Amino acid sequence: PEAVFGGSEVLPERKEELKAPEDYTVVLLNDNYTTREFVVEVLRLVFHKNQADATKIMLKVHHQGRGVVGVYTWDIAQTKANQVHALAREYGFPLRCIVEEA
Ligand code: TYC
Protein backbone atom coordinates (compact mmCIF):
# COMPACT_ATOMS: atom_id res chain seq x y z
CA PRO A 1 0.00 0.00 0.00
CA GLU A 2 1.13 3.53 -0.69
CA ALA A 3 1.54 6.24 1.94
CA VAL A 4 -1.74 7.92 2.79
CA PHE A 5 -1.17 11.62 3.26
CA GLY A 6 0.03 13.37 0.09
CA GLY A 7 2.73 10.81 -0.46
CA SER A 8 4.49 11.67 2.81
CA GLU A 9 5.69 8.82 5.01
CA VAL A 10 3.24 9.44 7.83
CA LEU A 11 2.00 5.89 8.28
CA PRO A 12 4.03 2.71 8.07
CA GLU A 13 3.51 1.03 4.73
CA ARG A 14 3.53 -2.55 5.91
CA LYS A 15 1.61 -4.20 8.70
CA GLU A 16 4.78 -5.70 10.20
CA GLU A 17 6.00 -2.20 11.03
CA LEU A 18 3.02 -1.76 13.35
CA LYS A 19 3.85 -4.84 15.36
CA ALA A 20 5.09 -4.36 18.92
CA PRO A 21 8.69 -5.57 19.31
CA GLU A 22 8.10 -8.78 21.26
CA ASP A 23 11.79 -9.48 21.45
CA TYR A 24 12.43 -10.24 25.10
CA THR A 25 12.45 -13.71 26.59
CA VAL A 26 11.71 -14.27 30.26
CA VAL A 27 13.87 -17.17 31.47
CA LEU A 28 13.22 -18.86 34.80
CA LEU A 29 16.23 -20.13 36.78
CA ASN A 30 16.46 -23.18 39.02
CA ASP A 31 17.49 -23.09 42.66
CA ASN A 32 17.51 -25.67 45.47
CA TYR A 33 15.11 -23.93 47.88
CA THR A 34 12.00 -22.66 46.09
CA THR A 35 9.24 -25.26 46.27
CA ARG A 36 7.84 -26.78 43.10
CA GLU A 37 4.36 -25.72 44.15
CA PHE A 38 5.39 -22.08 44.53
CA VAL A 39 7.00 -22.03 41.08
CA VAL A 40 3.83 -23.45 39.51
CA GLU A 41 1.71 -20.88 41.35
CA VAL A 42 3.92 -18.01 40.14
CA LEU A 43 3.74 -19.28 36.56
CA ARG A 44 -0.06 -19.33 36.81
CA LEU A 45 -0.40 -15.94 38.51
CA VAL A 46 2.18 -13.89 36.64
CA PHE A 47 2.31 -15.62 33.25
CA HIS A 48 -1.27 -16.92 33.03
CA LYS A 49 -0.14 -20.50 32.42
CA ASN A 50 -2.56 -23.36 33.08
CA GLN A 51 -1.66 -26.09 35.57
CA ALA A 52 -0.30 -28.45 32.89
CA ASP A 53 1.90 -25.87 31.14
CA ALA A 54 3.10 -24.39 34.45
CA THR A 55 4.09 -27.86 35.69
CA LYS A 56 5.86 -28.64 32.41
CA ILE A 57 7.91 -25.43 32.57
CA MET A 58 8.71 -25.90 36.27
CA LEU A 59 9.99 -29.44 35.66
CA LYS A 60 12.07 -28.35 32.67
CA VAL A 61 13.73 -25.65 34.80
CA HIS A 62 14.20 -28.09 37.67
CA HIS A 63 15.98 -30.60 35.41
CA GLN A 64 17.81 -28.32 32.97
CA GLY A 65 18.63 -25.32 35.18
CA ARG A 66 16.69 -22.80 33.17
CA GLY A 67 13.69 -22.56 30.88
CA VAL A 68 11.85 -20.10 28.68
CA VAL A 69 8.58 -18.90 30.17
CA GLY A 70 7.51 -16.58 27.35
CA VAL A 71 8.42 -13.84 24.89
CA TYR A 72 7.15 -10.31 25.50
CA THR A 73 7.81 -6.64 24.84
CA TRP A 74 10.61 -5.14 26.92
CA ASP A 75 8.17 -3.43 29.32
CA ILE A 76 6.01 -6.48 29.91
CA ALA A 77 9.01 -8.79 30.30
CA GLN A 78 10.54 -6.46 32.91
CA THR A 79 7.23 -6.10 34.75
CA LYS A 80 6.76 -9.87 34.93
CA ALA A 81 10.33 -10.39 36.15
CA ASN A 82 9.71 -7.77 38.86
CA GLN A 83 6.45 -9.49 39.86
CA VAL A 84 8.26 -12.84 40.18
CA HIS A 85 10.94 -11.30 42.38
CA ALA A 86 8.40 -9.42 44.52
CA LEU A 87 6.39 -12.61 45.15
CA ALA A 88 9.56 -14.62 45.84
CA ARG A 89 10.76 -12.00 48.35
CA GLU A 90 7.35 -11.88 49.99
CA TYR A 91 7.34 -15.66 50.53
CA GLY A 92 11.03 -15.94 51.39
CA PHE A 93 12.15 -17.89 48.31
CA PRO A 94 15.26 -17.15 46.22
CA LEU A 95 13.43 -17.75 42.91
CA ARG A 96 15.00 -15.75 40.06
CA CYS A 97 14.19 -15.06 36.48
CA ILE A 98 16.05 -13.04 33.87
CA VAL A 99 15.09 -11.15 30.72
CA GLU A 100 17.10 -11.92 27.59
CA GLU A 101 17.02 -10.50 24.10
CA ALA A 102 15.22 -13.03 21.89
N1 TYC B 1 14.59 -27.17 42.31
C1 TYC B 1 13.46 -26.82 43.15
C2 TYC B 1 13.17 -27.95 44.15
O1 TYC B 1 13.65 -29.04 43.97
C3 TYC B 1 12.20 -26.56 42.30
C4 TYC B 1 12.36 -25.40 41.39
C5 TYC B 1 11.95 -25.49 40.05
C6 TYC B 1 12.91 -24.20 41.83
C7 TYC B 1 12.05 -24.43 39.18
C8 TYC B 1 13.02 -23.10 40.96
O2 TYC B 1 12.69 -22.14 38.80
C9 TYC B 1 12.60 -23.21 39.64
N2 TYC B 1 12.38 -27.67 45.17
TrEMBL record:
Pfam families, per database record: ClpS
One of the GO BP terms on file: protein catabolic process
InterPro entries (UniProt xref): ClpS, ClpS_core, Ribosomal_bL12_C/ClpS-like
Domain of life: Bacteria
Molecular-function GO terms, alphabetical: peptidase activity
Gene3D superfamilies: 3.30.1390.10
Ranges of residues in domain Adaptor protein ClpS core: 19-97
Keywords, in A-Z order: Hydrolase, Protease
Statement: the UniProt record of this protein carries the keyword Magnesium: no
Ranges in a coiled coil: none
Annotated function: Involved in the modulation of the specificity of the ClpAP-mediated ATP-dependent protein degradation.
Family: Belongs to the ClpS family.
PANTHER family reported for this sequence: ATP-DEPENDENT CLP PROTEASE ADAPTER PROTEIN CLPS, ATP-DEPENDENT CLP PROTEASE ADAPTER PROTEIN CLPS1, CHLOROPLASTIC
NCBIfam families: PRK00033.1-5 (NF000672)
Subunit composition and interactions: Binds to the N-terminal domain of the chaperone ClpA.
The name this protein goes by in its record: ATP-dependent Clp protease adapter protein ClpS
Gene that this polypeptide is encoded by: clpS
